Amino acid sequence: MTMTRIGLAGYGFGGRIFHAPLIASAAGAELAGVVTRSPERRAELAADHPGVPAFDSLAGLAAAGADAVAISTPADTHIPLVLEAIELGLAVVCDKPFALDAAQAREAVEAAGRAGIVLSVYQNRRWDSDLLTVRRLLDEGELGDVTVFESAFERYSLDPVPASGAGILRDFGSHLVDQALLLWGPVASVYGEVGAHDERLFAVLNHAGGMTTHLSGDWVQGSPAPRFRVRGSKGAYVVYGMDIQEPALIAGRTPAAEGDAWGTEPEERWGRLQRGDDSEPVRSERGRWDTYYPAFAAAVRGEGPVPVDPRDAIAALTVIDAIRRSAKEGRSIELAVAAPA
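The structure assignment produced for this chain is given below.
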């Protein structure tokens, strides 16, 4: 197999814990190097991935023969680095939030299109165990006619909201909105509330197809809501807690070491199908973050589509922009919905 050489820009928490191990574990890809000037980060890289070089710049990474770069740096640097990588001819994966607003996202996507550069967004939570389980239940018709989708990213932390993510609305909201659009399609109107310090969000999305989504994100929530509650005519699927793949990576476990056992939720963490007082466990799908980089590497080689279309980030950021505007103006915001092709 021809290997796709993928570099990494940034070796903080996201780059070191999430991207580097998944690139290094991916079939058809190799970790080509890391762009970081920090002596501390370079020492961590040497310990974690012996022999993988460090570079001072994207230009240095490109000159060393990298085919692509994954950008995992503070949010306000994403688009400048994406545009620089495009100029250097590097294919790009950009972490979320892809951009600070929809206009920035559109600029980058159009630049990649003009240059013929492969561009994707790292929406790894499309391959969370719980979301894949929801998709299976919908495909099988287990829930009947679904009318309301409730989705929450809620944690309890007394630490400040990380500045690198540009606030909970852009950080948690990038995943919440992307998943809602993936499941239910374009949004016709938005109502939103955002905390004074961007530490929480609540939004109601009215989808063009008739579905209603309730989204909640919170950094300081002592009693987190269910991760999903999907309400249908045949019952509701309810699941608590976050997908197991994040804590697994934090603990140093990798897909390379665990193989097909990667992302498997223990039975006590499965969600339940509830019908009033009746409740039964629902087998969870295996989480599959390990499929993103093999698919991206193949796309760089011209062997398939990117795992996440970057135009999806424009759509998600359009909704996120509307949530912020709704919160500021205290009213619902109507969005233009493109006619079906």
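Interim note for the steering committee: The mean pLDDT is 95. Residues 52 and 208 are 48 Å apart (CA to CA).
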